[in-house]
Fold these 2 entries.
Entry 1:
Amino acid sequence: MAKTVFITGATSGFGKATALLFAQNGHDIIITGRRKERLESLAKEIKTKYSTSVLPLCFDVRNNDAVVSAIHSLPNKHVDILVNNAGLASGLNKIQNGSLDDWEKMIDTNIKGLLHVSKAIMPLMIDNQKGHIINIGSTAGKEVYQNGNVYCATKHAVDAISKSMRIDLLEHGIKVSQICPGAAETEFSEVRLHGDVEKAKKVYTGYEPMSAGDIASIIYYISSLPENLCINDLVVTSLAQANSLYINRK
Ligand code: NDP
Ligand code: 8X3
């Protein structure tokens, strides 16, 4: 049966690949992000290729009023699966050299943004006594590494929020899963390195990183399990990566 899937950060990387995969499998998609042209072009692509409904909603997850008004605008007030994916790293410096602006961006997006969207969607799931929240954490939420400091802290917060959500939503039959990927080649490093494309490419040289499609297929798999099963927490890396600290580069 077709489900309604709400995906944050669908203009790129994991979110875009996830939207395409769910649409390909006949699910109704709500795609969100700040870049309107990209949302519109993805919506067009989905409509052309698949016979499913797609609704683009353009907002910044950091702006709670914008989040609330976008979610209030949903025609059916119904979401089966929320993929809390929007997020970023900004800067890669020792903490003593960190920029306040980078820190605020990461904290406001990765922690507060995820909370804003969840707060607006949880009541819809509670009304339905059913739903699935899939939070995108990171290996950076399991271990810290040099220069990772505040990004790692935000993903540790996602880890804690995911565990808390699972406990607090238990009585409502709502599943909460966290996926913690290691390195995957998307626009992530370009954003982290403030647009330095050449340096960003080097993050993925000498080994085969994961792709956005790999993570999308895991999100899809987790959401397709029988009703009685919930993958609570899943850490995934490419074969060349052991954890945040060890990558086998040739
Ligand atoms: P991308 O940079 O390719 O995609 C990030 C997405 O997040 C974009 O669609 C972007 O949309 C959206 N986004 C960022 N800030 C905001 C905001 N303030 N409001 C709304 N949307 C926002 O990176 P990935 O696909 O790799 O990252 C997706 C998630 O996965 C992030 O949470 C990231 O931390 C996490 N992750 C990534 C890993 C990797 O190695 N790539 C590994 C582990 C976790 P727009 O700019 O249009 O708003
Ligand atoms: C993204 C993966 O290794 O850059 O969360 O922290 S890493």
Note: The chain has a mean pLDDT of 98.
Entry 2:
Amino acid sequence: MKKLIAILGSTGSIGTQALQVIEEHPDKYEAYVLTANNRVDELIAQARKFKPEAVVIANKSKYPQLKEALADLPIKVYAGEEALCQIVQEKAIDIVLTAMVGYAGLRPTMNAIRARKAIALANKETLVVAGELINALARVNRTPILPVDSEHSAVFQCLAGEAGNAIEKVILTASGGPFRTFSHEQLKTVTKEQALRHPNWDMGAKITIDSASMMNKGFEVIEAKWLFGVRPDQIEVVVHPQSVIHSMVQFADGAVKAQLGMPDMRLPIQYAFSYPNRLQASFPRLDFTRCTELTFEQPDTTRFRNLALAYEALHRAGNMPCIVNAANEVCVAAFLHDRISFLGMSDVIEKTMERVSFISKPAYEDYVATDAEARRVAEEIIRG
Ligand code: NDP
Ligand code: MG
């Protein structure tokens, strides 16, 4: 039986790589729903090629163009945020791949869990914002959440066959990004063009900026807490510039397991689809004659303050990670529009954390209100 997959964000970096995985296994997977936000031409091309049951464009103004371009095919066409939230509940869907970016992924993910769809989770912001809520929902509905983020997929792969064995430590590797060796002085003047040039991974703009600022690693620490049920002090970050080891788990007896491979997101995407099985894959293999050096460094939270702020949010818990996420989304957008400096992002996030009301046990409505308030506050601070 083929598994029917809904890809939220099919036109993005993860989305297009997921379609490559589906293309490689036409007997196992089918793209059943494809969705995008603005890139309507790409969505049209994907729909004509993969012939999904339905497509959704979040930006309603693009609907007429999408509808007309697919008029000769029996594909259902929808638009808007609400449609996106509803489509994930379609009866036939087996897996929902959450590959859209940011807080916008929260509601559709919650709906997909309620409809008992397996979640292949790329949208880490969902767990950063509301990890506790998502876990509770997944438990009640007995819905698996399968990590797509390469570090978490690595940990997940290390945990295969270890049921009942306690984790002592999860060790997340970080490439260090394009500014790993930059001094504080140099970081003051880096540009978005420099930040967008990641040394090892080709990703969407938002996560590429997060990687340069190490907020991405901070978010991954929070993500690891919710995915693997470990305490903050059991999650360690180690900078490993070669990106060959994708992450590690240390067990009670001191044994450390690692998952290694090429920096290619198609593997974690495919593993989330095929778990607990492994499928054939055509992409390049790791060549140990060419990777002769694996090095490790401590992360520097003085130069990369975002990582420290994310750890602080994790410790303070409640709606604090939601505040950090919202402030960070506003900051990244502002940085990409040259409205704020690279280091200025940490200042704005820190101030937003101080100003937005803290809620220790947030419900869904509190997250919605917190997100809105934190965005408003961060924007105000940027305007000065
Ligand atoms: P991209 O920016 O490349 O793609 C984002 C996708 O989501 C696009 O299809 C985009 O549509 C759609 N989208 C964006 N905003 C909205 C919205 N408000 N409503 C509906 N759809 C929206 O991002 P990535 O693929 O790089 O990242 C996706 C997620 O996966 C992020 O959460 C990221 O942190 C995570 N991730 C990504 C990795 C990577 O290698 N890229 C690695 C690990 C995690 P459109 O094209 O029309 O704008
Ligand atoms: Mg990652």
Note: The pocket of magnesium ion (ligand 2) is lined by residues 149-151, 220 (CB under 6 Å).
